[in-house]
Amino acid sequence: MLIKTNLDEVKKRETALFFINEHIQKNGRRDLYDLTGLSGAYLLKKEDFEVLETYVGPAVFEKMLDEYGKTHLGGEKILGFNRTSAGILATILALVKKDSTVVHYLPELPSHPSIPRSTRLVGGHYLEFDNLKDFILPENTSLVVITGSTMDHKVISEEEFKQIIKKAHSHPGGKIPVLVDDASGARLRTIVFNQPSAMDLGADLVVTSTDKLMDGPRGGLMAGKSSLIDEIKSKAHQFGLEAQAPLVAGMVRALEQFDPENILNSLDKKKKLKKLLNQEFEGFNETPTGVMILPRDIALELEKRNIDTLLSPDDLSFLWAMILLKEYGVITIPAVGMPGASPTLRLDMASFDGKKLELNEIKNILKGSFKKLEIIAPHIDKSKDILFKK
Ligand SMILES: *Cc1c(COP(=O)(O)O)cnc(C)c1O
């Protein structure tokens, strides 16, 4: 395995940023295609720039965030974070005592690393389940986390969602607060799967990412009961986790201009794309708003073509993603993701840049880049050169 540790992932990410910078220096932004589904967009208005300062900014934008945030998520009060991970950390800092247990339910493993990591940080115990029949709530449970939609966009069923909330709220030792990690789920579950919002399903807190399936900056938007939000806000300020004014302004404008139609339009496109890709590859599957191929299926595609490689399936996904970026300017998560992000190669058709590429172009890019992968993957040194440029 070439990418084993967090540090390897950090280095791999630095290489990806190096290639992005190289494309920008050569041709500007226009030849880059960000298909991660994480837009990072800043739709600020001209007048916003005059009020972004430390104390003026929050006075203007936090009030707006409260209004738009409640429309988007429901709940009594809104809080903005630097990232969804920061919102999860602040919640755990506020609600989880040493030696108590955090129980996490998600539609499919693996979990987002921020939940077990934050729990470990406060000295808590961590349990995770992806099926109801094994699910238990130990007596000392201090927080239940439900993931509405995983990093790979696997979505929980409404029935499971309700069952977990019911179990947490009717726990013999007393009502346990429920935080929903709805990073992408706040839009996927509601718009594509027609489920109610997390708050309407009875959650106490929900956090979503403002750059997932909407044209906003990377940030965490939390809604919930006022009393809980106040406690979490206090922790957020103590540890510097809260969103600063420019970020809050970006979140406000993204929420203001959010249009569910964009997500609905991508549904038809991804079906067509999957058909096209199946002419070349067997391993591509549909996601709710795009297509994806798992690392093990990338390895199988190489095997089918009689290509021998010592690289692990995850390494192959990282390498293919890096070739896509270096040679074609296509940005995907395995190349640029933070440590612990999913290694699945995903192309999101709801993304802003997804609209710039014809489906046939995408197919040709994948075909061409896979040919390069076939040539490079048998050689460890060549693979390393691409993954760890510096
Ligand atoms: C993206 C994501 C997160 C973390 O979002 P960041 O902005 O990277 O902190 C957490 N949980 C799930 C399920 C996610 O998809």
Keywords:
390 residues, alpha/beta, 14 helices, 12 strands, binds pyridoxal-5'-phosphate
* Global morphology: globular
Q: Report strand order across the widest sheet.
A: 2-8-7-6-5-3-4
Q: List each distinct ligand once.
A: pyridoxal-5'-phosphate
Determine the mean pLDDT: 95
Please work out how many helical segments DSSP would assign: 14
Rg calc: 21 Å
- Which band does the percent of strand residues land in? 5-15%
Amino-to-carboxy terminus distance: 19 Å
| Unreliable parts | none
Helix content range: 40-55%
Oligomer: single chain
- Total count of strands: 12
Describe this structure in words.
By secondary structure, the protein is of the alpha/beta class. The protein contains 14 helices and twelve strands. The model has no long low-confidence stretch (mean pLDDT 95). Helix 3 packs across helix 7 (226-239), helix 9 crosses helix 13 and helix 11 (313-328) crosses helix 13 (359-376). The strands form three sheets. It has a seven-stranded mixed sheet with strand order 2-8-7-6-5-3-4, sandwiched between helices. It has a three-stranded antiparallel sheet with strand order 9-10-12. Pyridoxal-5'-phosphate binds at residues 83-85, 112, 114, 147, 150-151, 181, 183-184, 209, 218, 338.
List the helices and strands and how they pair.
Elements: H1 6-27, E1 33-34, H2 56-73, E2 77-81, H3 84-95, E3 101-105, H4 114-121, E4 125-129, E5 141-147, H5 158-169, E6 178-181, H6 185-192, E7 205-209, E8 220-224, H7 226-239, H8 245-257, H9 260-277, E9 285-287, E10 290-293, H10 295-304, H11 313-328, E11 330-331, H12 333-336, E12 345-348, H13 359-376, H14 380-387
Parallel strand pairs: 1-11, 3-4, 3-5, 5-6, 6-7
Antiparallel strand pairs: 2-8, 7-8, 9-10, 10-12
Helix pairs in contact: 1-11, 2-8, 3-4, 3-7, 9-13, 10-11, 11-13
The structure holds pyridoxal-5'-phosphate.
